[in-house]
Amino acid sequence: MINFSNFYSTIAKNRLSHWLRILPTQLHEWENTHVHGKMASWIRVLNKFPAIKTENIELKERVEIGSADEISVGETKKLENLLQKFHPWRKGPFHIHGVHIDTEWRSDWKWDRVLPHISPLKYRYVLDVGCGSGYHMWRMRGEGAEFVVGIDPSDLFLCQFEAVRHFANKDQNVNLLPLGIQELPKLEAFDTVFSMGVLYHRKSPMDHITQLQDQLVEGGELVLETLVIAGDKDDVLVPQDRYAKMRNIWFLPSAEALKLWVEKCGFEEVRIADINDTLTGEQRSTAWMTNESLEDYLDPNDPTKTVEGHPAPKRALLIAKKAVKPVS
């Protein structure tokens, strides 16, 4: 099983120490009640990875750990076979000792869109909500973030993250916990909180925005990215059944409606930083994710629509500040 004791020891000495009041109990409950049926086999794969210390770690321009010449050709092939055991790989790409994990999503494209609009991450405590396998967490670390925590309830994503961290010399300042945002107490400890690709999965988007707010220090920055539709502040799509073959899509607001929601939750300096159409070059099937992808979710006769007839995926990026309470 994944051992979180090092994480407990680390946060005991930093501004997240108050989280220890409930976190060990929560993770103990997860271990006993929510673990995926394949978890034991995934753990066995993690235990087969060779111990390779490397100085070749690039996180600022890409996520590249180690080089091909640090291991033999046979070891590279074995490593590739082991990493394939964690199929499907959705967020990336990763380069590990010459193995290119060509993930479904080109998450580096999203990062290139986000980075110019956010406050510098150097020395910051960062929370990434719905972090997937942790690709963006490594890029945050590459930008100088002091401490990065990701939360995502997927056991597979946790194991994918641990696989990458194994080769990144087990960096104790980047951690993924198998939790949802609703399980976090009001920590008020992070300088920047990211929620990218999560809001449309929440039955109550306003509650989600408030939960994100509860994790920020006063004056902290929210980075919110989600699916949107074209329209004004009164336009919101509520799919009756599926959206792009996904059942768990609840609300797709216009960017202006989303901005209003964030303002109504008490955030300040809310701005729409970017709106971008999702194209099949950014999300597609690969050898590392052989299931259906965006091309299969769009109307083959009209790629501006999903197979259900809804507007094709469009994503907006909003940046906002948590208000600072006036001094009484």
Fold and architecture overview:
The chain is of the alpha/beta class. It has helices at 5-11, 23-33, 39-48, 73-84, 107-114, 135-142, 155-167, 205-213, 255-264, 294-297; strands at residues 57-58, 64-65, 91-92, 94-96, 99-101, 105-106, 125-129, 147-151, 174-177, 190-196, 216-228, 236-237, 252-253, 268-277, 298-299, 302-306, 314-321. Strand 7, helix 6 (135-142) and strand 8 (147-151) form a beta-alpha-beta unit.
Secondary structure: elements and pairs:
Elements lengths: L4 H7 L11 H11 L5 H10 L8 E2 L5 E2 L7 H12 L6 E2 L1 E3 L2 E3 L3 E2 H8 L10 E5 L5 H8 L4 E5 L3 H13 L6 E4 L12 E7 L8 H9 L2 E13 L7 E2 L14 E2 L1 H10 L3 E10 L16 H4 E2 L2 E5 L7 E8 L7
Parallel strand pairs: 2-4, 3-6, 7-8, 7-10, 8-9, 10-11
Antiparallel strand pairs: 1-2, 4-5, 11-17, 12-13, 14-17, 15-16
Helix pairs in contact: 3-7
Organism: Psychromonas marina
Protein name: tRNA U34 carboxymethyltransferase
Catalytic activity: carboxy-S-adenosyl-L-methionine + 5-hydroxyuridine(34) in tRNA = 5-carboxymethoxyuridine(34) in tRNA + S-adenosyl-L-homocysteine + H(+)
